[in-house]
Amino acid sequence: MIISTQIVRLDGLVLVASVDDRQMQELGDLKQNVRSIIKKLTPNSEPRASIESSKHSIHYVLNDSVAYLAITERSYPRKLALTYLEDVRAEFQTSYKRNDYLDPQLRPYAYSEFDRFIERTKKTYQDSRATGNLDRLNDELKDVTQVMTKNIEDLLYRGDSLEKMGDMSSRLREDSAKYKRAAVKINWELLLKQYGPFGALGLVVLILLIWRFS
């Protein structure tokens, strides 16, 4: 289970902090550990890492002087936690301008509205079916990568042209993009199945209210 998510600049400024379970007694200590980790990070630090405690783990992805961190239960798969953080990082950097979120005059929690995306994404990664689908897609992508690597090695052994090896690399990139798109599609389909009926019910109620008072 993903418990808490934060986006923090390396100077200590918190850009986003997710709404979490305030009743967890250990959460305060864990967040103190997060602050300690931030203080030790530099732009040259390991870009992805996980730190385990007795019951929980702290995972981070570091990019462009910003750390994307998640506190999870220790049993939660490390690979999935880092994939989740990569999705959060990609969306944040796509949604906001670099010069803005690195502005020295920026106030804390300036991007609190981004928590809506974090909560939606977290629900996707909490779903056990999504976990299984992501694992399956990652395994398929790994198989494709192994096959392509073997084919490239065969080309080198036979002394074939660099043009053929370039074509092989292009196909690998295309397959990687295909599996990533498939993973995103599966995740959103799960969200639609889970929350679609509530949305449809809300729409019906809204139409009835408009009809009643019009």
State the gist of this model.
The protein has helices at 27-40, 78-95, 98-101, 115-126, 128-158, 162-213; strands spanning 2-9, 14-17, 48-52, 56-63, 66-73. The chain has 214 residues and is α+β, with helices and mostly antiparallel strands. Helix 2 packs antiparallel against helix 4, helix 4 packs across helix 6 and helix 5 (128-158) runs antiparallel to helix 6.
List the helices and strands and how they pair.
Elements: E1 2-9, E2 14-17, H1 27-40, E3 48-52, E4 56-63, E5 66-73, H2 78-95, H3 98-101, H4 115-126, H5 128-158, H6 162-213
Antiparallel strand pairs: 1-2, 1-5, 3-4, 4-5
Helix pairs in contact: 2-4, 4-6, 5-6
Descriptive notes:
One of its GO terms (biological process) is retrograde vesicle-mediated transport, Golgi to endoplasmic reticulum. The protein has 214 residues and is of the alpha+beta class. The termini are far apart. Helix 2 (78-95) packs antiparallel against helix 4 (115-126) and helix 5 packs antiparallel against helix 6. It has two domains: 2-163, 2-Layer Sandwich (Beta-Lactamase), CATH 3.30.450.50; 165-213. Strands 2-1-5-4-3 form a five-stranded antiparallel β-sheet, sandwiched between helices. It has helices at residues 27-40, 78-95, 98-101, 115-126, 128-158, 162-213, and strands at 2-9, 14-17, 48-52, 56-63, 66-73.
